[in-house]
Amino acid sequence: MALEVLKKNDFENLIKNYKPDIVCVQELKMNSEIPNNYGYYAYYNFALSKGYSGSMILTKEKPLNVSYNLGLPQFDSEGRFIMLEYSNFYVISIYMPHGGRNKENHSYKFAAINSLLKLVQSLNKKVFICTDFNIVHTELDLKNYKMNYKNNMFSYEERAKIDELIGLGLKDSFRCLVSDGDIYSMWPNGFNARARNMDWRIDYIFVSEQLESSIGKVMYLKEVLGSDHCPYLLEIDL
User: Fold this and answer.
1) Minimal CA–CA distance to 126: which of 73, 87, 75, 159?
2) What is the mean pLDDT of residues 116-123?
3) Can you tell me the distance from the alpha carbon of 150 to that of 173, in angstroms, rounded to the nearest whole number?
4) DSSP conformation class of 61
5) What is the pTM of this model?
6) How many beta carbons lie within 10 A of that of residue 125, not counting itself?
7) DSSP result, 14-37
């Protein structure tokens, strides 16, 4: 969510239209707080490099504790992680590394995922993980999956890491209610990709399996512009 998105009022309109209790943003690409927190408590984790990475959470309810480090020095310096603790659950906003077109950064990407897996195992409350995970999980989540089995973001070893996360007792909240394909969250710039629905589903909210029965609505807001990703809406009764 770079500054130009704010200037176009896309983010403000999103807040006004949906009035979310919690907003998680990854790849913030800013190094200063937004001019208006819209009445929310606001938590930021800025990258040391200006205009790169970063994360933010806006929340109506003040948390008990806030954490900004996953314990991986490079990852933490890039502002990729925020965790809020409440009385009976955690909310994590996390931006996973891309991995590199030629998988040149896969060692870094897998180190970050393994650190997240370790953290999840240590938590003693229900958890929401809101993430640009930079991995497509199944063939349903990628338009041209036959061409991408060995490529970054759809390789077998990357997809297996989502299986590991699910194996720890988490659910892909979208797949709890929707089994259809051709629903995506990120469209490459150019090629009229969004209009042609040529995309990847790499943005998720993973939730503890105990929360599955409380999920009321899931939706990718494709019509919300301002980014090559679209927001993901989860309604849940806590």
Assistant:
1) 87
2) 98
3) 26
4) S
5) 0.95
6) 11
7) HHHHH--SEEEEE----SS--S--
Predicted confidence (pLDDT) per residue in 79-112, tens digit: 999 999 999 999 999 999 999 999 999 999 999 9
- Is 95 catalytic? The answer is yes
Alpha carbon 175 to its chain's center: 15
**Could you give the domains of the chain?**
64-236 (3.60.10.10)
In this structure, what token pair is assigned to residue 166? 């699910």
Which ranges of 8-149 would DSSP assign to H, the alpha helix? 10-18, 73-77, 106-122
> Which of 132, 141, 172, 199 does the annotation list as catalytic?
132
H/E run at residue 94: strand 89-95
Catalytic annotation on 204? no
How many residues can be counted in the chain? Answer: 238
Quick check: 41 and 59 in contact, CB under 8 A? yes
List C-alpha distances in Å: 230 to 88, 166, 194.
Answer: 29, 23, 10
- Going by pLDDT thresholds of 50, 70 and 90, the confidence category of residue 190 is low
From the candidates 43, 44, 86, 95, give the one annotated as an active-site residue.
95
